[in-house]
Amino acid sequence: MMQTKEFLKTIGIENNNLRVSKKRFPDGSQYRFEVPGIQKPGAMAALIDATDKYGVKVHRVTQTKGIMLLTDYEIEQMIDIAKDAKVELFLSVGPRATYDTSASAKTKEGMRIGYRLRGYDNLVYAIEDVRRAVDLGVRGIVVYDEGLLWTLGKMRDEGELPKDTHFKVSAHTGHGNPASAKLLQEIGADSFNPVRDLQIPMIASIRNAIDISIDLHTENPQSSGGFIRHYEVPDIIKYAAPVYLKTGGAVAGHHGWDTTETQAAERIRQVSLVQDMINRYYDDAVMSGKGASDLAIPK
User: Fold this and answer.
1) Residue 250 pLDDT > 90, yes or no?
2) Which one of 36, 179, 192, 276 has the lowest number of neighbouring Cβ atoms within 10 Å?
3) Cβ contacts of residue 181 below 8 Å, gap of 6+?
4) Are 73 and 57 in contact (CB under 8 A)?
5) Are the beta carbons of 147 and 117 closer than 8 angstroms?
6) pLDDT tens for each residue of 40-95
7) In angstroms, rounded to a whole number, what is the distance separating the alpha carbons of residues 170 and 147?
């Protein structure tokens, strides 16, 4: 095994042995909060209102059902809310195997396809989904397919998409090791959400291999395990920084859950519980302020 480990070290992959991460966001902070599953403008408005009630900050709001399921007016409303609140708005690519005519994706074995794209036309549809959102002003896109990520990265490099467009790789893509994380960074990812159930040493080895932010679930709906990691958050920050703490998932029934306005506020209550854990057990951890310059806030 030593020969393999020595080779991996030469290409930037090694066990970090739980060394505290010295990496930071551009503003010098260690952590930010992301609230996923906010599908419509009403839920987003309720979520932002609840941040004042609970006295917490949110840096990123993520929609998961797909751009193609939102009207232009709904996207514009969400953009306005995000700009006013100075938070990132990430919309998810709509075309995916589960929405396609694929029978395989709906079987027990075939579901390993995940949300990846099938065929040339679906790749084109996915790019069109992204173009539409970006043309309206969105600057954060959630991606589920590595080939699409590579293509979008090329488009950004060539000026086909704005240079300030950010690509976030979803946990539904199914990656959970440092080599995969490094590949995703190299082909255009700005933020990486590994599979949800990684142990902290596993997370630390990923952090050692990449510089982009890691997005980690502090809790999950029952459909993806139902586990709650609030007590682990201080160590997650120490070893994974810069990290987005994805919080509020326990409120949902499943990925793509159409969060109500009441449930959106409940997600912020979950953020307050995690913030309390940080204050209690790692009170010198540094959180990003409002409207940091590198945030993918809509234009």
Assistant:
1) no
2) 276
3) 175, 192, 194, 206, 209, 210, 214
4) no
5) yes
6) 999 999 999 999 999 999 999 999 999 999 999 999 999 999 999 999 999 999 99
7) 14
Residues with Cβ within 8 Å of residue 114, at least 6 apart in sequence = 97, 144, 172, 173, 174
> Which amino acid, one-letter code, is at 114?
G
Tokens encoding 271? 């953020």
Name the phi and psi angles at 156, rounded to 5: -65, -40
Residue 253: predicted pLDDT: 64
Buried b (16+ CB within 10 A) or exposed e, 42-58: bbbbbbbebbeeeebbb
DSSP letters, 204-233, are: HHHHHH--SEEEEESB--GGGT--B-GGGH
Specify the pTM: 0.93
Rounded-to-integer distance, Cα 264 and Cα 235, Å: 27
Quick check: helix, strand or coil at residue 141? strand
C-alpha distances in angstroms, 116 versus 90, 105, 149, 178? 18, 10, 11, 21
